[in-house]
Design goal:
binds copper (II) ion; five-stranded mixed sheet; 42% helix; alpha+beta; 2 domains
Length: 267
């Protein structure tokens, strides 16, 4: 029974290792394969960090179990051993994690730059954003510029609106302006492996390039109030023609009342 705690701390790393090996192959981490190239690279980073964390967890828990096992194996007549710290141990467990963190920081730099630093964004996104994606309690408001116009930060009279649905063309990089009207929210598109906070007062550009047409989920990943769970939207990725047709339909529904045209025809 004295060795129970040693076995206890050895048991969990074994569980962690089994789960860590099974999770990627069983699809427990992500809903399906990454929908974008950038998503693939982000998932690669995720798996690398998962590996490092797993090795660290197993190492520290085995060390802990070993200390407990040693202590439990001693006879009752043996006195406890007190330690007042060790300089070399302190150095090792400061320098090793520092190097691991430094390695991760350098290794992820190009993904970070392409994902976050605007001068590294794909050329196609530099002409402007296709839409504004405005979070608010508790929905996503999409604002497109009028057909043929470019998106302005301030709402324009001809702008087109939709709630919880964004249409973008497949096979080319598109950029949206992420904003929030009230509290902090987070744009999370799990299939695209994209996550970005929406921060009050900021316009944050987010770009993605989805090669395959289809519907991609968006949820809010920041607990933003009682209706947080309702903030579900979707990105509809389709051909450029389908996007154009969709925009024409929005324009018809939202800016033309039909009255003036009919009156003009009668004359
Ligand atoms: Cu939210």
């Amino acid at each position: 029974m004295k060795k129970f705690w040693a076995i206890f701390f050895w048991f969990w790393p074994v569980v962690a290792l089994v789960l860590c090996v099974m999770a990627p192959s069983q699809g427990w981490w992500f809903p399906g394969p990454p929908g974008t190239q950038m998503g693939e690279r982000i998932q690669g980073l995720f798996e690398l960090i998962l590996g490092i964390v797993t090795v660290t967890f197993i190492g520290t828990n085995f060390a802990l179990g070993w200390v407990l096992w040693q202590a439990a194996s001693k006879g009752d007549d043996k006195k406890a051993f007190y330690s007042h710290g060790s300089h070399s141990l302190e150095l090792i467990w400061t320098i090793v994690p520092a190097f691991v963190l430094l390695f991760i920081a350098l290794y992820q730099m190009d993904v970070w730059a392409e994902y976050r630093v605007q001068s590294f964004y794909p050329e196609e996104t530099k002409q402007g954003s296709v839409a504004e994606f405005m979070a608010r309690q508790f929905e996503w408001r999409v604002r497109y510029p009028a057909i043929g116009e470019t998106l302005k930060d301030e709402a324009q009279p001809g702008d087109l609106y939709m709630v919880n649905e964004l249409h973008v063309p497949a096979g080319r990089p598109v950029k949206i302006n992420l904003r929030t009207q009230d509290v902090q929210h987070a744009f999370f598109a799990p299939q695209l492996r994209l996550k970005q906070d929406a921060v009050p007062g900021l316009i944050i550009p987010v770009w993605f390039d989805v090669p395959k047409a289809g519907n991609y989920d968006v949820t809010c990943a920041e607990l933003c109030g009682w209706g947080h769970y309702k903030m579900k939207a979707r990105i509809v990725v389709e051909s450029q023609q389908a996007v154009d047709a969709y925009m024409r339909k929005l324009q018809e529904e939202q800016t033309e009342d039909g009255f003036v045209e009919e009156a003009a025809e009668e004359e």
